[in-house]
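[Primary structure, fold]
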Amino acid sequence: MEDMHTPEMQDPGIQNPDPGTASPETPRRRRRRAVKWNYKRIIAAAIAVVVISAIAIYGGFSLAHKLSSRSASKEKVAVKAKKITPATKQKPETKEVKETKKPGYIEYTVKSGDSLYALAIKNHTTVDKIKELNGIDKNDNRLDIGMTLKIPTKESGDNNTGNQDVKTNMAPSTSAIKPLAKDVVRGPTSAKKIALTFDAGSGSEATPQILKALEDANVKATFFLTGKWVDENPELAKRIADGGSVIGNHTDTHPDLTKLTDDGIVKELKSAEDKIQKKAGVSSKPLFRTPYGTRDPRVLRVAANAGYRSIYWTVDSLDWKPSITADQVKNRILAGLSNGAIIIEHCGSQQTAQILPKLIKEIQDRGYKIVTVPELFE
């Protein structure tokens, strides 16, 4: 039996599609297309967001840059303004300083050994003025250590001291001797120099002969004069100063200073200084020698506060003793010679007046230079 090919059965409701015509879209295909479209929209939206964000960021950065540039320029202007401002205000400030008047006093803290009298002398004023400025009773002279005291100052151009013509003992090179509460016993030992000193406490008969010996040898010495001696011998005091010798203070009446009050010590020094200035035309400051050589720390401190330094001695000639001979005086001095030595003699000693010319020669023959006390420190 011959096999027969049987044509495929078709549903009469379905027609074969035209080969040139697209197949109808199924629900599944539509879903696929919808998903693809959603992806595109999402991508497009994302790109739009990125672009917008980039524009916004760039715009913000540009705005911030502009704002910062403006603030920076403002800061520069402010800095310039600050630099200019002080310069414009400087002149008025300077004028104010120039127009400010200085007070007519200084403030001083009271120390041990101070007294109203000593402070008045030291600052060229008076006790009454100090009391008036500080409201202190006229009868009250007490000072408490540590208290602050107003002391009047001398105005510029004020010439009430009356000392314009007074010469000073101290050359600029002798500034090593300053007021200090400590004795000078000898000068520096580095140079072969000695100082002859003469105390004038009472007698003056031998003084012309002593001055002649110094003048003949062209030697300068140091004389410690009391105010009383200057009063009694004004011509000799002037001759000492005019001859180039140095004058120091030996108090007014030659008392034992250790037995005086602080004010008493200052009064002694002040009175002698006034007389020396008036009669000899020089100041005794800062050289001072205690009568009899008696002193203690209090005396030295009070004297220093009054502007003085105590000058003691290295060699005592003992020429004031009636029992000692002229040769003994000379031998004592020669035996004590050493660099920087300060030798004490007296204006009233006939023994000293007798041997002085020979003494000067022998000192010089031994290689020593005779100088004043200040010159020991040059």
